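Dear support,

I submitted the protein below through the web form. The confirmation email said the job was done, but the results page showed an empty box. After a refresh the structure appeared. I'm attaching both so you can tell me whether what I see now is the final result or a partial one.
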Amino acid sequence: MFRTFHAALVLLTVMCSIPRLDAQVLYGSIVGTVTDQAGASVPGAKIRITSRGTTQSREAETDSAGTYTFPSLAPDMYDVVVTRQGFQTFSVRGTNVEAGGTIRVDAALKIGGVDTTVEVAAEAATLQTENGEVRSAINSTTLESIPTPIGRNYQNLLITVPGVMPPANQHSVAANPSRGLTFNVNGTTRNSNNVRIDGTSQPMCRAWTRSKRCRW
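What the results page shows now:
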């Protein structure tokens, strides 16, 4: 089966167990805490995030503990700007939000005027600190650029993810017409993996019954 992915994001998550009907996660989040130079929380700070892909902006304000959150963000690169009267403007450029991911952007404000900006470049690989998932992503550029074997099965590209054993055929052609592949990650069983495309889970058939129905 030939498949073409133009703007897809393949996300591999290693989990303890995968339920049959897994919730679909199409969005990511940005969370953070705003503090002053002494480490005290700064309530009432204004945070504005801007999508580089759509140029659309969203705004929020820190609560009494100095925390903020932007849920339900479409996967994209975001610029984060934090302002508060009496402090210099804090800016982080190029924060990468992936489907199902929660990225933390904390801001330490310095005393000064808002017309002075402290700009920080986002890290190339942002550490996932908000949950215990071990996750890797294959972006659309990789999907479109790296050649795959005959059949154009995107699962062959999982070999580029650290810890993934080379994917292999799990059944005969008759029992597996879609040519789904099986693989192991960091010593776990093949049933402990969850593959998502643009945040949507892609279940893989574990076995086929005599009536050609998939047994999950």
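Response: this is the final, complete result; the empty box was a page-load delay. DSSP finds one helix and 17 strands in the chain.
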